[in-house]
Request: fold
Amino acid sequence: MNTALPREPEAAHRALAEIQDLLARLKVEAELVHREQHPTEPERQALVEQLVAKQQRNTLAARIAPLHAADIAYVLEALPREQRELLWPLVHENRHGPVLVELSPAVRAPIIEMMSRSALIQMAQSLDTDDLAAMAEELPFDVVERVRQGLTIEEREQLRAAMSYPEDSVGARMDFEMVTIRDDVTLEVVLRYLRRFEALPAHTDQVFVVDRKEHLRGALSIDQLLLNEPETLVAEVMRHDLLSLNARDDAFGAAQAFQRYDLVSAPVVDEHGKLIGRLTVSEVVDVIREEGDSDVLAQAGLREEEDLFASIWASARNRWLWLALNLCTAFFASRVIGAFEGTIEKVVALAALMPIVAGIAGNTGNQTMTIFIRSMALGQVTASNLSRLFAKELSIAALNGLVWGLVAGLFAWWLYSGSDQGMLLGLTMILAIMLNLLIAALIAIFVPMLLQKLGRDPALGASVLLTFSTDSMGFFIFLGLATLFF
Reply:
């Protein structure tokens, strides 16, 4: 019997390094055995190779066995597909469910495809109702139906309810395992009731108080349960001011509430105030991580989460949409430059200085956009403070434009001081950088707001659109000023 090792923050990284080293060594061993051919004894050769392969599988299985399910998922995501296919059968079938729950959808899908129908049914039967609901769309319909038929009436209703809520809602994330009590009993009765459980649901920091129709009345924290006299009624010490969530609330908004109030769990109610589940901090951590990943992907213009070792074709297609847009914007920027060919021919130095104007504006625009999108996600940008934020960012852009425009302008003047055009080049740089930084700030605020009003992710392709704007306008302003001055 394998004994789980103590968990450490670096356990997953260390396990990944060790398993990668093991896989490399085992591959070399297998190649050496295969090279030592025995032409006269092919059966013996095949037997030796089978024995070596079996020994290698046992070695890998022994290293995987003590790992936590989340660490196994981490290792699988960091390995190429052929190594995942080698490792997955070595994961004990009782752990298939917990590991699959931890995997990202992009990695989970091909693993589900390689599992047999009976293995999928066994895995799905081991899942809690909320985890089964989260994975239901990725599993074959007949597998979900077979598992659903084996559920109790209450579990079927829970599964139906969880699957009926939008993916980004609290209802799709809630946990159905919770403890409920009435307010007309003593704490001693509650304690006796809790002792009947083999184990309390994870993250139980409070038990929920309901009436006879399961409507939420309040909550009794575990510390109040333990610190007060056993004869005390629940109604006397329970909390009425607890945060309750509606099943249709946005999951990320709920996660922000958890962060703001340092919550471990919160009750989830339906539109009639009936308690139907709870949201826990473990699920909230996943929501925050997924939201962060989604923002990073959207800002880069990626359509969906990508498996690190997905096929070249699939990865390329995932990046096509915004690459196509970027190509169009690049052609537009090139036409802006083309419109000033005459000016560039007269003052060749303009070609060398143009990228500076576009580059510094793109950088300051990205800074503004990152801060603004984050504030929008946290709900800190409102109609009442928008104008003040707008004025502040424009003022910052103007100040930075003046300071760094002067630096760039003086440098350009010094660089071309040997010609008659040095001073005019410096002045052109100062004005162009100031104006382009102001435009960058405007775009950095306007684009996320427009996307949000259109019902899209404010970060969706924002950096691509910002780069297009700062490049095109930077070239236009710089060359336009140069045309006027020269």
Notes: The CA atoms of residues 126 and 466 lie 48 Å apart. The longest helix spans residues 422-453. Confidence is low (pLDDT under 50) at residues 1-5.
